Amino acid sequence: MKVRDLTELAVRNLREALLRNTLTTLGIGVGIASLVAMLSLGVGLQRLATQRLERSGLFNAIFVRPASDFRRMGGGANPAAPGKPTPLDLKARQAIAHLADVQEVYPQIRFPTEIQYAGNSYPTAVAGIPASDRASGAFDGMEGRFFSSPTADEAILQIGFAQRLARQPETLIGKQMVVRYAKREPLAATDGGKGPATGKTSPSAPTAGFSLVLKEKDLQIVGIVKTDPEGFGGFGRGQLFVPLDVAEALHATQVTDLRQVLRGPSSVPTYAVLTVRVTSPTRVPTVEAAIKRMGFETFSLLDTTRNLRLFFTVFDLLLGIFGGLALVVATLGIVNTLVMAILERRREIGVLKALGAADQDVRQLFFSEAAVMGLLGGFFGTGLGWAIGRALTFGTDLYLRRRDLPAVNISFVPWWLALGAIVFAVAVSLLAGIYPASRAARLNPVEALRYE
Amino acid sequence: MMGATLQARDGFAIRAENVSRHFQMGQTLIRAVDEVTLSVRKGEFVGLLGSSGSGKSTLLNLMAGLDHPTSGTMIAEGRNLAAMSSRELARFRNQTVGIVFQAFNLLPRMTLEENVELPLRLAEVDRGERAARVREVLERVHLEKRSTHRPGELSGGEQQRAAIARALVNHPTILYADEPTGNLDSATGGEILNLLWEINQTLAATIVLVTHEQPLAERFAGRIAFMKDGKLVAA
Ligand SMILES: Nc1ncnc2c1ncn2[C@@H]1O[C@H](COP(=O)(O)OP(=O)(O)OP(=O)(O)O)[C@@H](O)[C@H]1O
Ligand SMILES: [Mg+2]
């Protein structure tokens, strides 16, 4: 028989025992749904964890230092090495930025300041934030907004600090404040600062690299962040965040400057540490090797996302087994339904054979009925599984929101899971149809047609 | 091809040669059909009579390719049925043979036209052609106005006419009817036999009719065969 005729007859036969076949189809649907729900949870959690880890910047960052620093710390090497260590200066920074797969190269900028706000002053530390941090997730769920541009004179406050400035921190957003800091100026320059110079403007030693000038800068508060975005960056606690470029342009004195002074006069400013952002954690080793070849020391965390993937594969497998058990039950339902159908339709099968149906036709007819039930059950089950996943996500979100945590998507149905589930439902149904279909095909027409 | 030449040579629609069909029931062997030799010429109308249990239905099933003989050969249209694969036998039942049962055996949830269409579906006839063929045979049995009714909505005689239409739709050369009037009153039964006789005359179809009713058989059949205890008594 032609496929269209088979499908037509199959659908028609299924409609005849509507209740029973609907229940069987629902059974397949529930089996597929539990499978899809379980796997969508596995996929969703894996996606969440991987994204979080990747966005955290922990695994796509390389920290670069000048080589000599480490050697000196190591103690063994002679301080006056014949080959001078490559300076980690602006030229080196640009060279690193031009390497393949490098997204961003920036120094860590942190300096002590005093904030002037509403007539009071508050000591704190300023940290420069690179534009890429916006995507890291650290600023998710913040009050207000992220910097409008990488060069905007704007500031984001850490909640703890904001609470010191105002009882209701939200009211700070949009307000102006003044940052006082010590600017580093080459010695040759005259005292150009607008405020009076601090007491230590000119230390006694003539070889000192720079002088310090007190400066002020107006900044607009645009946001308040609840978590500490520097918290896992590993470089200490900042309480006031400004765009990195703005922080750099201030030329504020940093703690590391002192080391440079001690090292002796130098015409070009160098960086103590540069952070290199790479496009993906998997590219870290190649970029790291390239930077090492340039003569710098590097440091990075091992890419643990690979272990994570392995863990989740096992996790998915376990979830799949639980979902699969439900499907086994559904499969038995199909076998039962089809075997019952044979008993009821003995006469019909006999008539079909008398009219010229080959064994193959009868077998295909029963297979088609199984396949149609599988297809419908597959669609229904995939939809139901997706809905269960959504419900789980919704419940989790309610819970998280009550705890003031940002919402997350714990379940996810990718297209391959939906398609795979439907194909799987049909395949399982066909498998379940093998025995009933061959039994129906082998039915002796003469016996089937004998008087009832 | 081979079949066609043989058929042309011998002119027989069906030939049973020493055909037996035995059933083992525990210790006893039932010889439902016992060493039967019977030839039916093309276009013949044969009546098969005999008391209940004499083996008429069993013989008919063997001739229709629904059952296999225990021994002997069955040659239909020049082809040995025993040599056919089960797929070829199915095709034989579909294309060469039409069967009408006492119990009508229409599928109850299908309309008349759908019932009649079934052999065409099995023969993989194009959809466009099917409707015309169904209409043609329903007209022949005067049921064209009931084509969308279900069997349960029709009288016994109408159901049997629908079953005859279904048996004819693939233009078979042999029509087997196993007590087609058994469930009908005598007037309606007469109509059915009239219809079969018409088919025999106008379509030149070979007809083998199993019946209990000797007068009816004598009125329509060109030849009568008697069965008794699985054996053919007079051919
Ligand atoms: N599958 C079977 N198994 C065992 N015995 C069978 C089987 N089919 C037929 N028989 C026996 O073979 C004999 C002939 O049966 P058959 O149905 O051919 O008779 P019949 O002449 O058609 O009778 P009726 O007029 O009642 O229809 C009967 O005794 C019957 O019991
Ligand atoms: Mg009988």
Task: Describe what you observe in this structure.
- The complex is a heterodimer of chains A (452) and B (235).
- Chain A is an alpha+beta fold and 452 residues long.
- Chain A has 2 domains: 3-54 and 308-450, no CATH class; 61-301, no CATH class.
- Helices cover 50% and strands 17% of the residues of chain A.
- Chain A has 13 helices and 11 strands.
- The longest helix of chain A has 44 residues, at 359-402.
- The two termini of chain A are 28 Å apart.
- Residues 69-82, 189-207 and 232-236 of chain A have low confidence and may be disordered.
- Chain B is an alpha/beta fold and 235 residues long.
- Chain B has one domain (43-65, 86-234): Rossmann fold (3-Layer(aba) Sandwich), CATH 3.40.50.
- Helices cover 38% and strands 29% of the residues of chain B.
- Chain B has 8 helices and 10 strands.
- Chain B has a 6-stranded mixed sheet, sandwiched between helices. Chain B has a 4-stranded antiparallel sheet with strand order 2-1-4-5.
- In chain B, helix 4 (112-122) crosses helix 5 (127-140), helix 5 (127-140) crosses helix 6 and helix 6 (156-168) packs parallel to helix 7 (186-202).
- Chain B is globular and about 50 Å long.
- The two termini of chain B are 30 Å apart.
- Classes of the chains: A alpha+beta (452), B alpha/beta (235).
- The A-B interface holds A 1-2, 5, 9, 12, 16, 347-348, 350-361, 445-446, 449, 451-452 and B 61, 64, 66-67, 86-87, 90-95, 99, 101, 103, 105, 107, 109-110, 118-119, 121-124, 166, 170.
